[in-house]
Amino acid sequence: MTKKRVFSGIQPTGNTHIGNYLGAIRNWVARQDEKENFFCVVDLHSLTVPQDPEELRYATRAMAAVLLAAGIDPDKSTLFVQSHVTAHAEGCWLLNCVTPLGWLQRMTQYKDKAAKQESVLTGLLDYPVLMAGDILFYDADEVPVGEDQKQHVELTRDIAQRFNSLYGQEFFVVPQPIIPEVGARVMGLDNPTAKMSKSSTDKRGHAIRILDEPKEIMRSFKRAVTDSGNEIVFSADPAKAGVNNLLGIYKAVTGKSESEVEADFADARGYGDLKKGVAEVVIEMLTPIRERYEYLMQDPAELDRLLAVGAEQATAVSQPKVNAMKEIMGLVLPK
Ligand code: TYM
């Protein structure tokens, strides 16, 4: 049986947090043997909002090191940086020319981000087309992502189907979003009604970053917003969103059922014990990753070598696909 092909990506900006880990990275790592995998540090996506060039350069290598430290194995998966494979930007243009503007204007992430900025860059609107290309140029069957990226994968399906119907062929594979049952939407600790997000990690107590030291993790959980009650149970009540989020993190980290999780806190004396209990399992999960990350970052030349191998493997798949698109669309390929 041939393995299903998986593509997923992560932006190198800011600090990777437990939402990224539980919603995406951990699931990539877990299914590496079952699938044929392409994982991409999407630096071109980061340019859709203003960046400090030095910080972006550093964050790109650091992101690759985080993924390796979390367990992405370059012998099993192709790990690469998006801008190293020119097919992505090139093919994005071709997809732009079959994607109606209205489809992009409807994207909720675009609307949210654009509303917060005075001047919106064209790249921000076009971001989902670049993402669609990432997936489609690899003929990916599956796209493991957190809940917030589902709409972009659905748009990818629409673009694939439109291209296929315009050019009369089954040219693109129409991919499936794969959203985990737990951990798909980790909320901010300071505001459990908003998802944990990289752009807010600078705010004290908003996120737990993958690379945070144990003391910092404990401090952030202790500051987490809860409510004035003391009941430690899963609940859909918006007033209990903070406790629900903490229990959800604990559930995702431990893999326990909701009743097992509640049983673990049955003797807790209050939310202080809950916060401490959640912090402890998160620290245990993240400590080995942080240690491996620190080790990997000591050898940037080796990181660059691994990324060069990844880029070569990725180019071998995506460039022929983009060349075939050009041909179908009526461009003359150079001899
Ligand atoms: P990015 O970098 O914002 O996030 C990377 C992954 O983490 C997931 N995620 C979360 N999961 C649970 N709870 C949260 N609070 C949380 N925040 C983020 C995201 O859903 C994502 O899976 N556009 C994408 C990157 C991308 C991509 C692609 C993904 C570019 N090309 C092709 C898949 C396929 C992004 O900005 O993810």
Describe the structure.
It is a single chain. By secondary structure, this protein is mainly alpha-helical. It is 53% helix and 7% strand. The protein folds into two domains: 5-179 and 300-329, Rossmann fold (3-Layer(aba) Sandwich); 198-294, Tyrosyl-Transfer RNA Synthetase (Orthogonal Bundle), CATH 1.10.240. The chain has a three-stranded parallel β-sheet with strand order 1-2-3. Strands 4-5 form a two-stranded parallel ribbon. It is globular, with a radius of gyration of 21 Å. The two termini are 37 Å apart. The mean pLDDT is 96. The structure holds tryptophanyl-5'AMP. The site of tryptophanyl-5'AMP (TYM) has 25 residues, from strand 1, helix 1 and helix 7.
Topology summary:
Blueprint: E1 5-10, H1 18-30, E2 36-41, H2 43-46, H3 53-70, E3 77-81, H4 87-96, H5 101-105, H6 108-115, H7 122-136, E4 142-144, H8 150-166, E5 176-178, H9 214-223, H10 241-254, H11 258-264, H12 271-296, H13 300-329
Helix pairs in contact: 3-12, 4-7, 4-13, 7-8, 9-12, 10-12
This protein binds tryptophanyl-5'AMP (TYM).
Tryptophanyl-5'AMP (TYM) binds at residues 7-11, 19-20, 23-24, 42, 45, 131, 134-135, 143, 145-146, 148-149, 152, 184-186, 195-196.
The assigned CATH architecture of the largest domain is 3-Layer(aba) Sandwich
Q: Biggest sheet, open or closed, and with what strands and sense?
A: 3 strands, parallel
- Percent of sequence in beta strands: 5-15%
Spatial strand arrangement across the major sheet: 1-2-3
Tell me the Rg in angstroms. Answer: 21 Å
CATH topology of the largest domain, what is it called?
A: Rossmann fold
The string of secondary-structure elements, in order, is EHEHHEHHHHEHEHHHHH
Give the helix proportion (percent range).
40-55%
* Classification by helices and strands: mainly alpha
